[in-house]
């Protein structure tokens, strides 16, 4: 079924969204702005490990990606990434990742050669100097350090030639028998809103404790987050910065209850041929749902921020809300045969804010034209999966904004190649026409 747990995680600051804008391949969803697509959740595998493994399958170990840069007209959207160096000592590993954007270099050399009267050594030297243009390159260093058998530290820093400054991140993860504790910090942190626009928060620090899902379906989570200075739009936009990203300290807690019921399920029997993905081995029809609530308190409200004082006040000091999702899943086929053995549809209705929905309904009867929050209207998520051949599956993730008339809010096309040896691992090549970007990832046990 579609991942219902995203409904709770979308309220916090650490929901990872894949992006080729950064070398670590991760941005954050703006909390409280609705529930992202299932296909828009980033891989749990660190990007350095993904590139290292995929480098064995691509010529010269170079992996392509596609994303607009800060100056995409000059630098282009096409980029090449590769692991330049990698060190593994026991459980400790470190790697150096490089990125190259070829459009500007090719255009500059072509113009240089065309302007020259003849092919001379000097012309060759003038063309070669463009290779030293630092805006063509980006470089990043990542290290994963095991501290104990249940805790690890992940450090990364990266520098893009066309941008000022560098991005540094640190994450400390400690696993308890029934909980995960995570401390994360970034300078700056990249967020993406429901419109696909990127925002850069100069400083972001979060401490979270999340319970594992119990057999009863109950889950809870609490944490505290601090952000400093005003967020900056990565690309030129007239939109106002999301309220959740304005400076302040926020304490938040959430709980959820999840339940599912099979309407029909064909249990797996003994068979010599195993499925390409163990999660897709049983034809079934299932209805599932999740219901939960959140509460938050802003400890500080960004005093002294005159340009954003009105928005900060609108954010309020305290808030509580309910959320819920209901999903219907239908799967035909066991994903074992070479052709025509997997057709799957997931339809999920998300209500990220019960209070926002109630205000919308009230305004509808009052004919009010008051401003609506991004999370106030329900969203319909549709996931279509169809086997092409063997382990290759074509997938479409779409999200519709249900207001007076349904509107397409997000769309992702992807090709998934299931890695049978990993039971439920796959290589995903995705493209988002709304964001005009795409990349290749490795995802393991993506549920």
UniProtKB/TrEMBL annotation:
GO molecular function: phosphatidic acid binding
One GO location term (cellular component): chloroplast envelope
Top-level taxonomic group: Eukaryota
InterPro entries named in the record: TGD4-like
A GO BP entry: acylglycerol transport
PANTHER family in alphabetical order: EXPRESSED PROTEIN
Protein name: Protein TRIGALACTOSYLDIACYLGLYCEROL 4, chloroplastic
Organism: Handroanthus impetiginosus
